[in-house]
Amino acid sequence: MRYEEATIGVDDLFEEVRAQYFPELANVDVMILLDTKKNKSKGKLVLGKIKKATDVERYLTSEEMPVGTTYPEEGYDYIMFLDKVMVNFCDDNDVKRIIRHELRHIFITERGKLVLVPHSLEDFYEEVELNNDDPRWAPRVSEMVTLIYEQGEDAE
Fold it and tell me: CB 72: neighbour CB atoms within 10 A?
């Protein structure tokens, strides 16, 4: 399978980032999947991405599914994809940077509607400021993960 559910460690990092930087998203349900295959977009390695769940995805991740599943009552609002090699080979701080970046895409309107917002630049202004201690973190992580893929390492 190309995707796997995130491990408890990744879920813990996600909850830490959400609590520290995005308390307004406390009631937003985000499923985290690990992408086991190298993914590129516009020639760049994709370390993380987020999408708003479709009605079908919400149904498939709702409590209406068979006994034994532990999904939110109404299903997940968003699905976040993280590169499994990045998660396995990078330190927690870099994984949290990716998670934090992806959560910036979620916006709640005044009426409570969830929307997906684009970047304010290649990144987000807020992320540039928060990452001023390591401004080249993204290229560094991307280069490392690319090298791991080129060496034939798998995501395990």
Answer: 16
